[in-house]
Automatic annotation (TrEMBL):
Record lineage: Bacteria, Pseudomonadati, Pseudomonadota, Alphaproteobacteria, Rhodobacterales
Keywords: DNA recombination
GO BP annotation list: DNA integration; DNA recombination
Any Pfam family: Phage_integrase
Record's protein name: Integrase
GO terms, molecular function: DNA binding
PROSITE patterns noted in UniProt: TYR_RECOMBINASE
Residue ranges of every copy of the Tyr recombinase domain listed in the record: 172-346
UniProt superkingdom: Bacteria
């Protein structure tokens, strides 16, 4: 099968081997030798780079392999910077994992496009995922963050993703658990089991699953004579959380047959390796209890709603959830407070003669 690529030259050497060179597009006098043959997995990107006047080797980084000032180039630089942030502890590995997925979607379609693309193209990309609006918005947010990062470092001057509207209708995200859901789960997973401990930990700390995998005895402390848990949530921008360790959680942590540096241990007696690994296992526990569609984040939301129903203010809920902005916790108190105000208002009408 004869291979035909514009500008690709195949030359037979005296030794019998074939040497491949590429004429640079726009400069026919310049020829760049290729370090790989057409059957190499990276041949296409090395060939395209040569056509653009760049010399690459198979060992080159993604940033070096991309066409300079292209979408692929800025995406590779952004991910490389995020990897350094993860190593420095400034960004969570989960955030990096999500951003890698966003960059994959972007570069699969526009890797060789000019770095600052028309906003209309990004809107087309968003609308491509309209069947899954939350994902569509997440993709645009990731791209917006990439351009924000690039603008701050002088790599570009405009952010084409700025101002693109969200399309998620805000259906509430994870479904909050009901009291009946909690009872069904505990009936299927009694005290002393890892599922029971996991649910108890999530419910009585309202922690995120990313924190649940590493919380353990080292986070226990005493505040004014009260047993408490103290931790710094891993989500960037969260405030430190210090809450009383209520009896149900204390009993659950002591009932585990195997105990380690973390409260939650997998079947091998080790800490869960990632939030995803615990999240997947938690969904299996839910299915075993007949609770399909439930998630760990739904327990956190349930805790917020129950706190609000018991009369806690949004600022009190902020301290439990680690929020630093009042509007984040307002979603739990808004409906409850409106009902209380409605009750008070209607009480004023009770004495009216009608």
């Amino acid at each position: 099968m004869k291979i035909r690529f514009p500008g690709l030259l195949a030359e037979k050497l005296p030794s019998g081997a074939t040497r491949y060179r590429v004429r640079v597009e726009g400069d026919k006098t310049r020829r760049i030798p290729l370090s790989v043959a057409p059957d190499h997995p990276q041949f296409m990107e090395i060939y395209r780079a040569a056509r653009a006047g760049l010399v690459l080797t198979p060992e080159s980084s993604p940033e070096d392999r991309a066409i300079r000032y292209s979408i692929g180039w800025i995406a590779a630089k952004h991910l490389a910077a995020m990897e350094r942030d993860v190593e420095a502890g400034a960004t969570s590995p989960l955030t990096l994992k999500k951003r890698v997925g966003v960059m994959k979607v972007l570069t699969e379609r526009y890797a060789d496009y000019a770095m600052v693309m028309p906003q209309a193209k990004l809107i087309e990309l968003r609308d491509e995922f309209i069947a899954t609006p939350a994902r569509a918005d997440s993709i645009i947010e990731g791209i917006r963050s990439m351009y924000r990062w690039a603008c701050e470092r002088g790599l570009c001057e405009t952010n084409p993703a700025a101002g693109i509207a969200r399309i998620d209708t805000g259906r509430g995200g994870a479904l909050p658990w009901t009291a009946d859901d909690l009872r069904r789960f505990r009936a299927a997973h009694p005290a002393g089991t890892t599922p029971h401990l996991c649910l108890t930990l999530l419910m009585f700390t309202a922690c995120r699953i990313g924190d649940a995998i590493w919380l353990g005895p080292s986070n226990e402390t005493t505040v004014q004579g009260v047993k408490a848990l103290r931790w710094q949530p891993s989500k960037r921008g969260s405030a430190e959380v210090t809450i009383p360790m209520l009896p149900p959680l204390y009993r659950a942590t002591r009932a585990a047959p195997v105990r380690g540096k973390t409260y939650l241990l997998n079947a091998k007696g080790r800490a869960f390796s990632s939030p995803d690994s615990l999240g997947n296992m938690f969904r299996r526990w839910c299915i075993a209890a007949g609770l399909e569609g439930r998630s760990a984040h739904g327990v956190r939301k349930a805790a917020g709603h129950l706190l609000a129903q018991e009369g806690c203010s949004q600022y009190q809920i902020m301290t439990i959830h680690g929020h630093t902005q009042a509007q984040t916790s307002e979603i739990y108190t808004k409906g409850v407070e409106r009902w209380k105000m409605a009750q008070a208002a209607m009480a004023a009408l009770e004495g009216m003669e009608w």
